[in-house]
């Protein structure tokens, strides 16, 4: 399958959190969120073993059924394993301490989505020096302090996002404690989308929460 256009999937980018989804399953929350308007799903579970993560990624892909790209956080091996099993998965998102994105691209091939976290001008410069087509989009964060990723860099705020996005040669999705109230400021700051965790995973009504977030973004 061909690589999708980031403009089509970055507006409302859901990053899963297994603990926040409980007592519901990640698959149930994802299915509701995509029905409500989530445009992309990244499966993230730092505590799951490889076998369990492959099973979770494949189950999420089955539930999404092609309505949005499905990515996995960090684990290139898990992406390849799920794809080998026939799951409709689209790529990986890597951070600064994961495999280098040029190596990731060589491993996953030309048709996979590769996202990269970047939070400083230096990290942006390194990303921009990569050959064209290596990375599809950049994740900027954390916008606000967030408990879902305790090791995040110092919060950037909307002004920090604007400073980075203004130099970006790639589309940027903002992440970190984002709510519907951030949608308009982030869009004005130059973000191509917003990535959320708690705002959907911890919501009593994930479909309704996704709908409100997307409406806020589009308005």
Supply the number of helical segments. 11
Radius of gyration: 16 Å
Low-confidence spans: pLDDT under 50, at least 5 residues? none
What percent of residues adopt helix (DSSP H or I)? 40-55%
Major pleated sheet:
8 strands, parallel, barrel
Number of strands: 8
Order of helices and strands: HEHHEHEHEHEHEHEHEHH
* Tally of separate domains: 1
As a percent range, the share of strand residues is 15-25%
User: Could you name the CATH homologous superfamily?
Assistant: Aldolase class I
Secondary-structure-based class equals alpha/beta
What is the strand arrangement across the widest sheet? 1-2-3-4-5-6-7-8
Q: Which CATH C-level class is it?
A: Alpha Beta
- The CATH topology assignment is TIM Barrel
Terminal Cα separation, in Å? 31 Å
Write up what this structure looks like.
GO terms for molecular function: thiamine-phosphate diphosphorylase activity. It comes from Arthrobacter burdickii. It is a single chain. The chain is an alpha/beta fold and 219 residues long. The protein has a single domain, classed as Aldolase class I (TIM Barrel, Alpha-Beta Barrel). It contains 11 helices and 8 strands. It has helices spanning 6-9, 18-21, 26-36, 50-64, 76-84, 101-108, 121-128, 157-165, 183-188, 198-201, 206-218; strands spanning 12-15, 40-43, 70-73, 91-94, 113-117, 137-141, 172-175, 193-196. The chain has an 8-stranded parallel beta barrel with strand order 1-2-3-4-5-6-7-8, surrounded by 6 helices. Strand 4, helix 6 (101-108) and strand 5 form a beta-alpha-beta unit. Helix 3 (26-36) runs parallel beside helix 4, helix 3 (26-36) packs parallel to helix 11 (206-218) and helix 4 crosses helix 5 (76-84). The two termini are 31 Å apart.
């Amino acid at each position: 399958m061909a690589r999708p256009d980031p403009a089509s999937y970055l507006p409302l980018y859901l990053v899963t959190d297994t603990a926040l989804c409980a007592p519901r399953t990640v698959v149930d929350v994802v299915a509701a969120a995509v029905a409500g308007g989530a445009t992309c799903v990244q499966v993230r579970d730092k505590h799951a073993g490889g076998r369990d993560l492959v099973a979770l990624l494949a189950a999420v892909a089955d539930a999404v059924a092609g309505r949005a790209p499905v990515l996995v956080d960090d684990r290139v091996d898990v992406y390849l394993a799920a794809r080998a099993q026939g799951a409709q998965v689209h790529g990986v998102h890597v951070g600064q301490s994961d495999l280098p994105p040029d190596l990731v691209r060589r491993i996953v091939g030309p048709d996979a989505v590769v996202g990269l976290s970047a939070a400083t001008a230096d990290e942006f410069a390194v990303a921009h020096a990569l050959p064209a087509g290596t990375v599809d989009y950049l994740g900027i964060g954390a916008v606000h302090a967030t408990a879902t990723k305790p090791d995040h860099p110092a919060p950037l705020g909307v002004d920090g996002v604007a400073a980075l996005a203004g130099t970006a040669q790639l589309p940027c999705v903002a992440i970190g404690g984002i709510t519907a109230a951030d949608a308009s400021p982030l869009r004005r700051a130059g973000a191509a989308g917003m990535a959320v965790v708690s705002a959907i995973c911890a919501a009593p009504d994930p479909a309704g929460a996704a709908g409100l977030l997307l409406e806020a973004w589009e308005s």
